[in-house]
## 1
Amino acid sequence: MPNTIERILTGMRDLQEQLEIELSKKREAFRYRLENGRVVFEAEVKSRHRAMRVNLLTFLAATRPMVVLTAPLIYALLLPFALLDLFVSVYQAVCFRAYGIARVRRQDYIAIDRQHLAYLNGLQKLNCVYCGYCNGVIAYVREIGARTESYWCPIKHARHLEGVHARYSGFTEFGEAEAFDPALAQIRTDLAKAPQEPPVG
């Protein structure tokens, strides 16, 4: 008989499936489709989007000076994010093979597609590429970290934490000594065949 946590996780998976169905309906409503991973809008929609685009000079004129002055600080983070992406990808390629952990696919976490929106000007598109990449790297690194933590120390913390990863609910309770070794063995077996799609969470 499933316990409360398993029932909640099952409910979350069901909700995620419902969300995907609703997102598919939105694609139809906004009249675009995905072809080989590329977004394709209907010609009439694309033409309407172009007409709604705010000219770059108008956009910049409406931007507060402090936003312009802080922009270099934002974009300076691109280098650390790219290095994090590189180092974590190398770590996963080497260590996950050694540990027998199924590898995380980058493309399941990093989406750079908003530049196809004709109603965005060039600067807005650049900003969207930046955000898609950096937030995708965070999600990708988080899942690699979650699998690493699951392999080495799948024990919940003594105190409540905000925003734990989706694998955390399957960890043993803090102080549950008898359950740790059997749970660790099972978790490691599961990690070897971890699904490639991102977990619920």
## 2
Amino acid sequence: MPAETRAPFVDTIESTRTFEAAIEHLVEAVERAGLQPGARLPVERDLAAQLGISIPTLRQALTVLARSGLLAARQGKGGGWFVMSDLVPFEAISAAVAVEEELAIETLCARRLVESSVARYLALTATEDDIAQLERANDLLELHIDERASVMEADAAFHRALVRAARNRPLQEAMRPISRHLHAIRDSYGGGRDDNVKTLRLHRRQTKAIRDRDLEALARVLDAHLRMLEDAFAAAIGRDPKDLFRGVREAS
């Protein structure tokens, strides 16, 4: 007798990797399964695998659904994500998505202001060891260029090295929440191999500009690098990046 196979709780996301799509699929799965208040969802690892997204993007979607009142997280033994309502609060979900998108906009603005300032500072103060740390992150990104999750980790390592080289603990503390939110944004709105290659190329150019103390070249490559995620995010939510980021682009 063949082993019984269990159908996945939630359908795989085919067209997009945004957290909005994950929300739609999760809501549909809850309704399709007829889950009542108190019912427990599959564990995050299984949900992420079935959706075809990473755990950070899944948690972003689950957080929105918790904020709307559909789900709640419980800690400890027997914990997990649980259904809290027998009706899907679509208006509350829409409002929660809007809050999440506003947080993403604020995060991208904060990133541009802080990273631009840090990079310019490093162009005047970076040591050979600082440059070596940046190059190591670049080498890791190139080594894993076809592995999206590893590319994201190498990309994050590059930006941590930038902030670490400033040798300013309050600045590092200020960057932590920005970096945490950025991880989910990159995962939700980032692209495929072409974007990975472009990111590597921009990282290499940025490192060279810092090494050469070339502030003009650094300004150009920083703007191009920061625009990648800003433009991808704006396109995904149907907004014009000029409207979202004009002020902060001019300020940086």
## 3
Amino acid sequence: MANEERLQKVIAHAGVASRRKAEKLIQDGKVRVNGETVTELGTKVGPNDEVEVNGVPIDKEEPVYYLLYKPRGVISSVSDDKGRKVVTDYLPEVDERIFPIGRLDYDTSGILLLTNDGEFANLLMHPRHEVDKVYVVKTKGIPSKEQMQQLRKGVKADGEYLKAVHAKILSTDGKKNSAIVQVILHEGKNRQVRRMFDSLGFPVDKLKRERYGMLDLHGMNAGDYRALKPHEVKQLRQLAEKNVE
């Protein structure tokens, strides 16, 4: 029938779980369609079918995609038990149940993507997707050429190997003993930029993600958001799929 989609895709699109996790939920008997438990992965559902995961009905929403200029001092989450500001507070007019793709630290500002499309989110967060993430860092202290080279070769932090695709000093301030550095990453490990600079002895004063793939913050202020254009979603998908088999 027209408009029917595989059950695991519908669950992923609703942002409940990744497609792989959705498949496991189905196989484990945690999913019901119109009141009946379904364990068959090939099951297809239409717009009028009622789908429940762990007894909770899911909304089969149209996928939406947003870019937020995340301010500093905001949690990359949809809720916070300490009552702190979260990124979805900046998109009050969005009715869909969106969630951030990956995260930016509390003290980091810049581009953050939000969606209700679990499959798209998992694709972009795949460690091999190789989408450029461009950060601008203000450091306490001025790294040497050799230390900048070290960032590109890779540094060890907390027993983990962290590497920049590209790193260059944009400017230095001898009086304030600080530098502005551009860093490009493909991976997005927890607090990666800060940990890399800490390992070299240069604490990060300010950190901003200025670019994600071909997206930038042109014409935006902290706290602003906009819907991604269809061609931008398509380009991001192509960028990620190019490197993920």
## 4
Amino acid sequence: MTFEPLVTSRLRLRSLEQRDAASLSAYRSDPSVARYQSWTVPYAAIAALELIQSTQARDITDLGWTQIGIATLETNELIGDIGFNRVDSSNAEIGFTLASDWQGQGLMREALETLLQYAVQTGVRRVTATTDVRNAASQGLLTRLGFTLEQILKDSWLEDGAYFDEYLYALELVETAARA
């Protein structure tokens, strides 16, 4: 099954396409974007193409990681992506990236709110996300989305020979849906 696009007032969440490789490589090569991510810069175009090819035919109902593109509604230009890891029928994990030129406009919040609403419809009840303890922007976004800090993962991130802690956030989607 392929991920069917979701549309917001400003965005289109869709499967990654081969034509997205240059954009994906470009924003993932930006040191400010990659700072707290698991890849190194530069993020090669071949790596972008391999990621696209590995996830193109996937949907968030499939177990494992599905990469979802975030594109502008107006031009369909890829400006970010969301990793959605379906752990089992009711649990998932997310990770997210947005090109630096598009940050600070509420776009990632808009994208994640829409994707989480869709996830509830597919049976997901709980979503987790980890973030480097130094990544205040992601922590703020997760908190605004209703995630709560559950745990500090000590020495879970190795970067340049030093270990860093991560925060584990969680959101109970059933509770969120009941409050809406």
